[in-house]
Specification:
With 243 residues, the protein is mainly alpha-helical. The protein has 9 helices and no strands. Helix 3 runs antiparallel to helix 4.
Length: 243
């Protein structure tokens, strides 16, 4: 006796539901990060447009602002599309660079009073960008994501900058403008031993700053989570049957 023809036909497979790689879109976060990206990019642009010397591009502040602009632009796009947040390995490094930029200027370099760009560029580079990065960290990111193990990775950027600056200075002839962009890196004045000793001291301070930032990250409230929860509470319920 043969089986019914319908029994011999392959059974239709249930529709496979693939996981959605994106999460909820966060246009409010993108709207805040896009201006921060613009401010970080505007600082170097204003410095060059107002006649400040092109060697300003070798300054740590300018390079740090360009890195911040790139990271915030990427983060704004991901927020708009509903992508995952930036890795704390990257966001923490950007935060440390911004903190170094602001603190070094206002506590150390401002006392030298030379080689500074125009007031508008100075404000953007050393104040607006660091404050924007700090506000993003405190208001738009989840706490307790930074780790002490990330700090050596964050310090690679200042270390790479030190190597770039000393190599560039060695290749330029004496008397070249901005041969060594910062006084404590001036090999002509302190020699390599003195410049490296001062750089090591600064590196230890930067590491201590990274530890402080990590500690604060584990103590601060979850403002981003509260805001997201608040938005979910006031959002209209999704269409569908009762459960």
């Amino acid at each position: 006796m043969t089986a019914p023809r319908a029994a011999l036909l392959p059974r239709p497979r249930a529709a496979e539901v693939l996981p959605d790689p994106t999460g909820p879109r966060r246009p409010w976060a993108a709207a805040l990060r896009a201006p921060a990206c613009g401010a970080a990019a505007a600082g170097p642009a204003v410095a060059l447009a107002t006649g400040y010397a092109p060697p300003t591009l070798i300054h740590f502040t300018v390079l740090a602002n360009l890195l911040v602009a790139g990271a915030f632009g990427w983060s704004a796009v991901r927020s708009w599309r509903g992508g995952p947040p930036l890795s704390p390995r990257l966001s923490g490094g950007v935060l440390l660079l911004a903190a170094i930029t602001g603190l070094m200027h206002h506590l150390v370099l401002v006392n030298y009073g030379s080689g500074s760009p125009t007031p508008a560029a100075t404000l953007l580079l050393h104040t607006v960008t660091p404050l924007a990065v700090a506000a993003d960290w405190l208001l738009l990111t989840a706490p307790r994501t930074l780790r002490l193990a990330h700090i050596p990775l964050w310090l690679l950027a200042p270390l790479a900058y030190l190597g770039l600056t000393l190599t560039r200075g060695a290749l330029l002839s004496p008397g070249t403008p901005a041969r060594y962009p910062y006084p404590f890196l001036d090999v002509d004045t302190y020699g390599y031993a003195g410049a490296l000793t001062q750089s090591l001291a600064l590196g230890l301070l930067f590491a201590a700053l990274g530890v402080l930032i990590t500690a604060v990250d584990h103590l601060r409230p979850n403002v981003a989570g509260w805001f997201q929860h608040r938005r979910n509470r006031i959002s209209p319920p999704a269409a569908g049957g009762l459960k």
